[in-house]
Amino acid sequence: MRSKLKIILVACLAAQAAASSEIRIAKSCYVIGDAIASAINTAKAAGLALDNPKPDIQELAEHLFGNEASIAAAKVRLNKIGAIIFAPPDTVSAERVLWEDKKEMKKEDIVVFCDLSRFERDANGEVFWDNQNAQWFGRKSYAEWNSNRENTEAETVSEIDGDNGSLVGASIYVFPWYIKQMQARKNMEGFTAVLNNDPKAIAMIAEVVKGIGRNWNYYKDKGMASGHPMARMDIVHAVLDGTMLHELSHTWAAGISEDVDGARSYGWGAAVEMKNPKNADSLSLFAYAVKVVQSTRFEVDIEGDIADYSTGIFVRKSKLEKRRDDEIDRMIREILDARWRS
């Protein structure tokens, strides 16, 4: 479970028939296909980076996972995420990938939904049901889900078949308002919601690091729910695909990672402290730290700081327009404020 940001999730323990699971997305989720693909590719790249790792990658792994046995366990989990099959809707038949928002899922699959239309009130109004899979939970829980609270990112429950008690497929539910917010960020000059390998996304790392530098003094003493101060990697990691990688790690297909220490499981500082390859945020943070190191000339240290030691393809000597700086600063402050409130 990732809490206190801006996405809702049901990551359910799945009974899996095939060697690899396949992700399908509901029609309401069409716009986040690139984030899902990026999350899988980023996990795969991080797993590959642990094959005969370079010194900087080895150092990152030791910071977040500790000894060689733990690093090896993290690699297995990252490889499982990287092996999940996903074909974006524009590359294959829509019937294969796009899922009806109320369609029954198969046990071996992971389905991403972006509304709550599957859930219906029962006769006495006390619980809500996913009639396809007999999923239910209390009225209070549903009200919290449906309130669009901006300080809640994700919650994880297990779906079981009410008739026979068997586990069913993994369902990820993403709030529509969160997708709109990510779309707005994606359309902003100098910013993006998905940290894939396109030039804009890679250049954003440099711009965000500069912007954090301009804003950091105001926020440096503010901590996260984990009890640790924020790190610059926590801000770079606050992208839609970073969240999706975290949530995918909770699924049976990816080894059922956990939020090992509840609310204290999130963020770079917590990951360094616990050094646990079963912790979902640790896996996702490592994968995105590897991306920063491999895609730019920045380095990431044990504090989660991002420093530029390059001579520099990403070091811009010309000044950005003040308007653009102000927009980037506004977005960074929004992220920092949300993290601080969490």
Automatic annotation (TrEMBL):
<keyword id="KW-0732">Signal</keyword>
<feature type="signal peptide">
    <location>
        <begin position="1"/>
        <end position="19"/>
    </location>
</feature>
<dbReference type="GO" id="GO:0008237">
    <property type="term" value="F:metallopeptidase activity"/>
</dbReference>
<protein>
    <submittedName>
        <fullName>Uncharacterized protein</fullName>
    </submittedName>
</protein>
<dbReference type="InterPro" id="IPR024079">
    <property type="entry name" value="MetalloPept_cat_dom_sf"/>
</dbReference>
